Amino acid sequence: QVQLVESGGGLVQAGGSLRLSCAASGRTFSSLALGWFRQAPGKEREFVAVISRSGGYTHYADSVKGRFTISRDNAKKTVYLQMNTLKPEDTAVYYCAADDDGFGFVTVRDGRANYWGQGTQVTVSS
Questions:
Q1: What are the E-state strand segments in the chain?
Q2: pLDDT-derived band at 34, boundaries 50, 70, 90
Q3: Strand 18-25 to 3-7 pairing
C-alpha cells in the first residue's frame, strides 16, 4: 500500500504561483511513477503531469505546458508541482497519483494509478 498526502493548495490571484507537495509512504519511493491530476466542479478529472521513477522523464497536459513543472525528491519521498502564471481555469482540486507496476509512467498518465491522495484545493481568482 502507498499513502499519498497532498499539501500546498490555497487561494491565489491570476498570474501568481503555488507549489503543491505530495508526500508518499508505504512503499519504496523510487519504485513509484508519480503524477498530478485535477478536477474542477462539474468536470471530469483530467491529467496534469507525470514523472518517471528516476525523474528523467516528464509529460504534461497541453493546458499547463510551459507553466507547470513536476519534480521529485526521492530522499524526501515527495513529488512537487510548481505552478506558475496561474489562470482562473486552473481552479480545481488537485490529486496526487502513484503506481509501481512495470509501466507505471503510462499507467499514471492514463489515469489508472493504483494509489491516489485525498486532494488539495487550488483556487485562482481573476
A1: 3-7, 10-13, 18-25, 33-39, 46-51, 58-60, 68-73, 78-83, 92-99, 115-116, 120-125
A2: very high
A3: antiparallel
